[in-house]
Amino acid sequence: MKNALCTVFCVIPILASAGSPVGVTEKIAPLADLKLEVSEQVERLSGVLTAEKYDDAKDGDVRQAFGLLACLGQAIAEHDQADGAKIQGAALRDAALQYKRKASLEEAQKAFEAVKLAVAGQAEGDHAKEHPWNKLINMHPMMEEMNDRNSKILRVLRRPRGRFFWEFCG
After folding, report:
1. Are the CB atoms for 66 and 38 separated by under 8 Å?
2. Longest alpha-carbon distance in the chain
3. Any idea where the domains of the chain sit in the sequence?
4. If DSSP codes are grouped into helix, strand and coil, which group holds residue 121?
5. Looking at the whole model, is its pTM more than 0.85?
6. Pairwise CA distance, residues 64 & 163, whole Å
7. CA 156 from chain center: how many Å?
């Protein structure tokens, strides 16, 4: 899964065309890893899209999760084995892009409902497969997400202890 996410995140900033210059294949980004990350982001959003937590999380977790879902949706849409996926990649991307930075809780919940429909394979409407990669997520939330993930890895590498370290690095 780490390789798939690195591929998705490292390719996004340099892409300016509608299609990915490198095809999204099972060898580069396994579909199972993309699906796992989608489910993790859906779980992340379900925990913060509440009246109590939304205002504190909208510029951080919410924005990052929707941006990541847009990237993952595009990766699934362009994946060479997308036909075998229950998740509708293009619909997921379009649903995640419904979230805007200044969205209210109700607007964010509406976008999240559309995300859940796409993940369940029940989204309706026309969703083009092609979409510019550089229009999926802004640079700031992408870099914040990368920084969060990197700090978690570095924390483990700084304090190697127990079996987990050797399994992680081995």
Report:
1. no
2. 51
3. 2-14+34-142
4. coil
5. no
6. 31
7. 23
